[in-house]
Specification:
555 residues, mainly beta, Immunoglobulin-like, 4-stranded antiparallel beta sheet, 39 strands, WD40_repeat_dom_sf, Int_alpha_beta-p, repeat, FG-GAP
């Protein structure tokens, strides 16, 4: 990997190798012989400050990063005109924990006269934003905040308490960078159900909060989960109101949407009619100009239809256990208990399968709207692999990732538009192997190619983030971990970018770190839910006073 390539990664992906100048402080000590850099933690950033050097035009920040190619020098910021720099932490740069930084003082011709001693960034854990429920411990129990979450611009939408009748609560980004419960929105919304329910899954579509359509999966029993699709309405001179006007009659446990600009919500119910069932809801008209006159020319919204199931689906396939959609055009459905090599003497039960559909441009009937394009399977059939437990698809609809937590693997598939087929391009294993950590139970993919993979049974000790497997120590509670990878444009791993976020911030408690997670659209900010986190918001972060209070971490 060359220096130029690495520099392009940092500037393009908006990692910690980006920042903003700020004006010099009034008490800056002037010393032309040496540079002394201090650092302080702010929300999602680290403020670097140093003494002023007379006769200097600008300062240059350099990083020396260990990689698989050896030690590499990188220009983090080529020209800083003040005596401070806000080093922004978007998705935490794992290498920052072991990289050395250096500040150079340079003249007009970019000749650098003075350099600081090399230094490392400190207390990076403090840049992680932590969000907790606004509910009062004296009034509520069993909240499990972080069981489900989604983003809508600068709003973080999280499930409300399990013992409440409210389905979601909305937290808004503040000037400090933290997220706080939005009382204004709360006072202008009515999003309650009849009776107490658990919120399993959340997705939204819409470009703004005001035109958002939110889908939720809630259940009052273990066997039935109902889908509610609700749209923001306006009243009182245009003030928004999110009301529980239901557009759906489906039951289901898993949800997916085609993004902010999309108009389709996918609903999966892996227990419906034995083998499972998938429905799709459209929020804008679908037009099929190539359809025959006797076929379907337009599908009006709002409409909800069932997806035609494969004819040879195993009776206990759990079709719809995971769903994903991109561009309102490509639909992915996981069936982790489906059989492999059906109809042969070497059939493998519960090997798992993933069904990929493409929107039919000329449907003759409603069952013909989605065309089954291919079926993805493990290259080596393995019983109870869990293949298809989780699926995701890139926003360009050309990359599919499939989790197989039974064998601790994630597989990536790329679409060849010229040849018209999907091919396996990589198989991703945990940064550090530990049998049974359920790696691949959930998957999230950022718009910039960062992949997050949850492993809810990971036993690593201590809260933090790790760029090296050597720092992952067995011995903690099985709180879970979230592995981070960067994918190349082709869809395979860039091995220079690997790391792990670990939970276990409270000893003796299973935090369920990674139960839910989602990248904020258009960014590399990752929200991770930990519904088993037990601390009271009023008492700090590491106490063990409120069982299942829950928490959300934003990295």
């Amino acid at each position: 990997m060359t220096k130029k390539y690495i520099f392009l990664i940092f500037t393009a992906l908006n990692l910690s190798a980006c920042g903003s100048d700020s004006s010099p402080s009034s008490d800056t000590h002037q010393d032309n012989s040496s540079l002394t850099v201090s650092q302080s933690i702010q929300a999602k950033s680290i403020l670097l400050e140093w003494n002023k050097i007379e006769g200097i035009k600008h300062y240059k920040l350099i990083r020396y990063r260990p990689s698989t190619q050896g030690l590499t020098s990188e220009v983090v910021e080529p020209s800083i005109t003040g005596t401070s720099y806000n080093l922004k932490i978007d998705l935490v740069d794992f290498d920052a924990t072991s990289s050395d930084y250096e500040l150079l003082a340079c003249k007009d011709n970019d000749y650098c006269l003075v350099q600081s001693p090399q230094f490392q960034l400190k207390n990076l854990e403090q840049t992680v934003i932590r969000v907790k429920t606004y509910l009062d411990h004296s009034e509520w129990n069993n909240v499990r905040f972080g069981e489900a979450l989604t983003w809508q611009n600068d709003h973080l939408i999280v499930n409300s308490g399990k013992d409440t009748t409210r389905v979601v609560d909305i937290y808004t980004k503040q000037k400090s960078g933290n997220y706080g419960y939005d009382e204004y929105i709360a006072n202008s919304t009515s999003y309650n159900t009849d009776g107490q329910k658990t919120t399993n899954s959340l997705v939204g579509i819409g470009n703004t909060f005001e035109d958002m359509m939110l889908a939720t999966s809630t259940c009052s029993t273990k066997k039935e989960a109902l889908i509610h699709i609700n749209k923001m309405h306006h009243y009182n001179n245009g003030r928004p109101k999110l009301s529980l006007k239901n557009y759906s009659d489906s039951s289901g446990q898993t949800l997916a949407s085609s993004g902010e600009n999309g108009g389709i919500i996918i609903m999966g119910d892996p227990e419906k009619n034995d083998a499972g069932e998938v429905s799709f809801f459209i929020n804008k008209d679908l037009n099929f100009p190539a359809a025959p006159e006797s076929g379907i020319k337009t599908l009006r919204h709002p409409s909800e239809l069932k997806l035609k199931r494969p004819d040879d689906l195993a009776v206990d396939a759990r079709f719809g256990a995971s769903v994903a959609i991109a561009k309102d055009n490509v639909l992915v459905v996981g069936a982790p208990m489906d059989s492999m090599r059906k109809g042969t003497g070497s059939e493998v039960q519960h090997g798992g399968a993933v069904y990929v559909y493409r929107l039919n441009p000329s449907p003759n009937e409603y069952n013909d709207i989605w065309h089954l394009e291919t079926v993805l399977e493990l290259p080596i059939p393995t019983e109870n692999s869990g293949y298809g437990t989780s699926v995701t698809i890139s926003k360009d609809a050309n990359l599919i990732l499939v989790g197989a937590p039974g064998i601790d693997k994630v597989l990536s598939y790329r679409y060849d538009s010229q040849k018209g087929f999907w091919s396996n391009v990589d198989t991703i294993d945990p940064v550090k192997a530990f049998k049974g950590q359920k790696f691949g139970s959930d998957i999230a993919l950022s718009d910039n190619g960062y992949l997050a993979v949850s492993a809810p049974q990971a036993p690593w000790r201590g809260f933090g983030f790790h760029h090296c497997s050597d720092t992952l120590e067995v011995g903690g509670d099985p709180d879970g971990a979230v592995y981070i990878y960067h994918l190349t444009s082709y869809g395979d791993r860039d091995y220079a970018w690997e790391g792990v976020f670990t939970g276990d911030s409270v000893s003796g408690v299973k935090e369920e770190f990674g139960k839910s997670m989602m990248f904020k659209p258009g960014t590399d900010e990752l929200a991770i839910g930990a519904p088993g986190h037990p601390s009271d918001p009023l008492l700090g972060w590491s106490d063990n006073s409120w069982k299942d209070a829950g928490a959300v971490y934003i990295f």
